[in-house]
Amino acid sequence: MWTAEVLIPAHRIVFALRGDQVIELRAPTTAATFGAYRGLPDAVHGMIAWPNTVLLRDPDGGPVVVDPGYATQGDMLAGALAARGLSPADVGTALATHLHSDHVTALPQLGPVDLHAHERELEEPHAHAQRGAMDAATIRPLTGEAGEVVPGVRWILTPGHTKGHVCFLVDTAEGVVAIAGDTPGPDPRWLADMDLPDGHPRREDHLRAFRAIRDAGPALVIPGHNPPQRL
User: Fold this and answer.
1) Closest Cα to residue 120, out of 154, 178, 161?
2) What is the tens place of the pLDDT at every residue in 3-12?
3) What residue numbers bound the domain in which 26 lies?
């Protein structure tokens, strides 16, 4: 059985420019911070959103990192591994739910790992923009609608947020943990209610992905940008 823990938790920072001043906004939850970002008046503003980076461990194999996250000064990924008695050299495998910059630009901190991402995702324009981050990795394309990376770690294709987005399903002693990436969206109620606002981009694709995740029977879902949730 594997263990799955959040190595670096999801976090958002919203900032706005007022003249030459930078104003920072943070709410008690990542969802509320996203709401503050959407609610800002028409002004110069932006947001940095760190995803949940997940560490998988198996007594019989090396650790696996899912969604390495953002590159930052201080090398947070390497530091978080060190805090658990691990070094980047201990990690031979990385998994990507998708290849947006917030999920993969820290990948070089792991060195020459095998990176598993869906072949559809590798064809996306945003994936080509990450080529520098992936230069040291050996790309292992996932193909089809579902499969297994290693025993006990499976994946299902969950397009919507991107064409090649996947959800990883990890067998643990507490049940299946679904590492769902950005499919659940910024509002945790959407997945819990199995519903989305009218007019949401690719709404039907997202709802199909919601059903696929729920049909996997997870005991715990780790979204991209909110705390882990039980359905």
Assistant:
1) 161
2) 999 999 999 9
3) 3-223
Asked if the structure places residue 229 within a domain, the reply is: no
Contacts of 133 (CB under 8 A, 6+ apart): 71, 101, 104, 105, 106, 107, 108
Q: Within a domain: residue 230?
A: no
Q: What is the pLDDT of residues 152-169, one digit of tens each?
A: 999 999 999 999 999 999
Report the CATH number at residue 24.
3.60.15.10
Handedness of CA 132, 134, 136, 140 (dihedral sign): negative
Number of domains in the chain: 1
Alpha helices in the chain (DSSP H): 30-39, 76-82, 101-104, 119-122, 125-128, 131-134, 188-193, 203-215
Q: Model's pTM, two decimal places?
A: 0.95
Contacts of 185 (CB under 8 A, 6+ apart): 161, 191, 196, 200, 206
In a domain, 228, yes or no: no
Spatial distance between the Cα atoms of 161 and 213, rounded to a whole number of angstroms: 14
**Of residues 90, 96, 88, 104, the one with CA closest to residue 58:** 90
